[in-house]
Amino acid sequence: MLEIEIKIRNPFTMLLIIGGTVGLVVLAQSFVDGKITGEAMGGSITEQEQVERAETQLYRQRIEQDVLGRREEILRYQLRVLEEGGEEWNESRERLRALLMDQKQSEEAIRLALRQLWEAQGRALIASQKAGELPHLSWPVEPRYGLSARYLDTEYQQQFGIPHRAIDIPVEQESLVRAAADGVVAAVIDNGMGYNYLILEHAGGSTLYGHMLNFLVTEGQYVKRGDPIARSGGMPGTPGAGPLSTGPHVHFEVIADGVHVDPLQYLPNFE
């Protein structure tokens, strides 16, 4: 049985903070103030939008350097997580050991993961534009271990200097992930050993589910609240986790009318 420490201030803070959400959180900046650029919507680019794009690019470069600077620390923590998991993760351990020893390869993997994460954020923002009012949501997985990172987590902000616009829900590997509300599957992205994610389009917004191990739905499919949509992942060195995930969890974002919002505003209380 997977055991996860859920208190944010503890020796495992780096695990809770650096996980797959590191990249996912910064993705919101791919659109300034949560707005869709003219290019994303297929229109022309205004001078103001060009300025915003330049600012966003500079921001991304800073984030990339921050994450790359923690490359070794991130990978070593992932190895410790795998070592506690038993022999079934031997293949994943060997894969991460090789990545740790090859700085160039590991940096390339991190850069690729960040691009995948920014792409996910952009897709989710575009999918959030459907007219209507975002309904109250149900939990995609049961928060039996609490949360490992909250929306706009202050400790996360202090350690990384970037806002965290999502919640991370620790859960056993291969847990069933369910639709948080009725909607249409806007994206099912399988990046192999990279970052896998799924996006649902709802009236008034969208939801993004990160670090998926595999998928149970296809793009364009209509789903009802509570329908199974995927199996969770996040264990380092496994498909869908990407190089920035340090443990099994579901990264969950909520976007309403092109703006990130705290998912807890729409979810049932759990404490």
Keywords:
271 residues; 7 helices; three-stranded antiparallel beta sheet; 18% strand; Glucose Permease (Domain IIA); alpha+beta
What report would you give on this structure?
34% of the residues lie in helices and 18% in strands. The strands form two sheets. Strands 1, 3, 4, 5, 7, 9 and 10 form a seven-stranded antiparallel β-sheet that branches. The chain has a single domain, classed as Glucose Permease (Domain IIA) (Distorted Sandwich). The protein is α+β, with helices and mostly antiparallel strands and 271 residues long. It has helices at residues 13-18, 21-26, 47-69, 71-83, 90-101, 103-127, 154-160; strands spanning 167-170, 176-178, 183-189, 197-202, 205-210, 212-215, 222-223, 228-232, 249-256, 259-261. It is built from seven helices and ten strands.
SSE arrangement:
Layout: H1 13-18, H2 21-26, H3 47-69, H4 71-83, H5 90-101, H6 103-127, H7 154-160, E1 167-170, E2 176-178, E3 183-189, E4 197-202, E5 205-210, E6 212-215, E7 222-223, E8 228-232, E9 249-256, E10 259-261
Antiparallel strand pairs: 1-9, 2-8, 3-4, 3-7, 4-5, 5-9, 6-8, 9-10
Helix pairs in contact: 4-5
